[in-house]
Amino acid sequence: MTQRTSFKKFLAQHLQGEHSIALSAMLGDIVNACKQIAIAIDSGALAGNMGSLGSENVQGEVQKALDVITNDIFIECNQRSGYVAGMVSEEMDSIIEVAKKYKQNGQYLLLFDPLDGSSNVNVNISVGTIFSILKSPNNKPELADFLQPGTAQVCAGYALYGTSTMLVLTTGNGVNGFTLDNESGEFYLTHANMQLVKDTEEFAINMSNYRFWEAPVQRYIDECLQGKDGKRKKDFNMRWVASMVAEVHRILVRGGVFMYPIDTKLQVKGGKLRLMYEANPMSFIVEQAGGVATTGMQRILEIIPTGLHQRVSVMMGSANEVDRLIAYHQN
Ligand code: P6P
To answer: How many domains does the chain have?
Structure first.
């Protein structure tokens, strides 16, 4: 059997620069949290965690028991490294303070969606965890310290709890994927230097929103549906898993375009997906793999945030297709 590269060995070989010591410690805690979340999910209905709590999170979404359980796991595992000065979670309204005794080493901000796609858990469809790491100007971060553009990210990644449990991340030098070996409990490098193909015949969008979309999105999808007899001169396939992590991972592996565009139904909210801990980390990963990530009008990573939970229009994936979407928005 060829020599396998463990996650720890990969970090030792590849992490460079000023953030390497902190990232090594923080990513060890993040991986530990994701392993615990995988276990919490894996027992499914047997653990009695499938229900809803009846409460609502800051997004106005009904919280599932697992939303809270995974949020608690992520906070507990990630506060002790001494490098995390503050956190933001999709599940919590305001900044999560880290106890002073745990902040002696350094200053990083950890933003995360602990269980993205959680409504899929009770129907046994893949879900994930998304995380983003920013540098903090001090170790008592305030709201404004979190509102950095996606270009400022030091690291971004996701865990995918699918047919296998995977971890995919970037620290700005490409994208690498690791698969959890359930026997040893170790993640091993299985997808080195992931590259997103420039062309695709597959798009991912929730078609039920068609009548609410803006004209450029309707035009793009119409042309895809016209197939080889239409302008695009090729047939397209469609996927929609309702789990961003699963969609983006599929697109990284075989190409495609993921779209959750703003529409007349979402106009007031600004979109469906959250900038700080969904769109930004996924855009960093997609761009590092050679893809493009846009609102249609602007590169997502260049958006200057105005709120912890602000929402944005999202189109990302194979460069030539997303560039076409950008062109349609500019016309
Ligand atoms: P819809 C999950 O709730 C999520 O935030 C993304 O993971 C997913 O792509 C999207 O919402 C699904 O939204 O409207 O199809 O249920």
So the answer is: 2
207 and 187 in one domain?
no
Enclosing domain of residue 306: 202-330
- Orientation angle between helical segments 319-330 and 215-226, nearest 10 degrees: 130
Domain termination residue (choose one: 191, 214, 248)? 191
Query: Is residue 104 located within the same domain as residue 212?
Result: no
249 burial type by CB count under 10 A (0-12 exposed, 13-18 middle, 19+ buried): buried
- In this structure, the answer to whether residues 291 and 154 fall within a common structural domain is no
Q: What is the pLDDT of residues 223-238, one digit of tens each?
A: 999 999 999 999 999 9
Distance (Å) from CA 251 to ligand 1 centroid: 16
Query: Other CB atoms closer than 10 Å to residue 38's CB: what's the count?
Result: 18
200 Cα to the center of ligand 1, angstroms: 22
Nearest of 2, 7, 1 to residue 165 by alpha carbon: 7
Q: Name the pTM for this structure.
A: 0.95
User: Are 214 and 110 found together in one domain?
Assistant: no
Q: What is the pLDDT of residues 253-278, one digit of tens each?
A: 999 999 999 999 999 999 999 999 99
Closest ligand 1 atom, CA of 258? 9
Nearest one of 64, 59, 109 to 83, comparing CA atoms: 109
Which protein residue's CA is at the shortest distance from atom 12 of ligand 1? 242
Report if residue 196 sits inside a domain. Answer: no
- How many angstroms separate the first and last alpha carbons of the chain? 54
